[in-house]
Amino acid sequence: MKFAEIIGQEDAKKTLLQLVANDRIPHAQIFWGSKGSGKLALAMAFAQYVLCQNKQTEDSCGRCISCIKVNKFIHPDVHYSYPTIGSKVISTHFFKEWKAAIEENSYQNVNQWLSKLGAAGKQGNINKDECLSIIKKLSLKTFEGKYKVLIMWLPEYLGKEGNRLLKLIEEPPENTLFLLVAENMDLILNTILSRCQVLKINTLSDEAIIETLISKHQLTQEKAVNIARLANGNYNEAMRLITDLENDNATLFLEWFRICYKGNGEEMVNWVNKKAIKLGREGQKQLLSYALHFLREFLILKMTNNEDNLRLQEKEAKTAINMTKILGFEQVNKMMELFNDVYFYVERNANGKILFLDTSIQLHKIFRKK
Length: 370
Description:
Blueprint: H1 10-21, E1 28-33, H2 39-51, H3 65-71, E2 78-81, H4 95-104, H5 110-116, H6 128-138, E3 148-153, H7 166-170, E4 176-182, H8 190-193, E5 197-201, H9 206-217, H10 221-231, H11 235-243, H12 248-262, H13 265-304, H14 314-323, H15 329-347, H16 352-368
Parallel strand pairs: 1-4, 1-5, 2-3, 3-4
């Protein structure tokens, strides 16, 4: 992948090019950014650039044998690590699926990836055996290029297993590069963070997404603008919205909100059993992320009383406008705290049925509190 293929992110590209030009490439970097920002694509383009045999000023050549191999995922010095399912599996067991998934969409989220493994409702992880496999791979000498490169997607899924890689990251074999692609720095061990240089990948601008939707997907200006506003800097979400402007998370969240507002116990139990549990952990996390997004937009609306710039679909925006009459700032802040806590518990495998029923009851109490 070349830098030219990546949407926007000109500042990040410039920083990476300068590191190579000045011969100051850190042995361990964290590409840190939000979902759909292109951080994985940037890490892959950077790996191709440092291994390119005919570097240009602003990009890899794309034609040398090294570029061709990196682009086809067959370069022997580029290794990939990513969340999988199971305690005894390693990334290479799913390499065929990984290659196909990234070639289809390098902006994918973890739920989409796990769905391709038939494990959409399960919690992915980077386990002990994967860490031992990484140590073994990187202990070998380079085969063809100047560097050995490990691209690890979502190191937050390492958990405490990250301790196994500490010595390797701190004292890596010669000419070894670690490119860690992360979304949630709070879930990465501090001992790993302290050994890495962080490159902040900004959220994509609406303009960059609009331009890409028009040029690559042949959308009209009006539709591209509408999708970009809803995507909120997430190109993966923008691609989904091209064919599905009805946000399932939005519909599900608004249904849940109405049930909690009414406070009917039977409806709450039915919603939890029929909707929340079937989402699985990753789906539940996506729903909670959308809930936080909705409440942030609601707060902006309540503070500014300006409907024009809401990053919500028409139906969601109408709900938000109606809610300004019944919800105060303190209530919204408590809801956001509640959703953040629930997200934390979902990640730690709390019982979904108990957790979402308790959350529904707490939401009803917040709604009814003056």
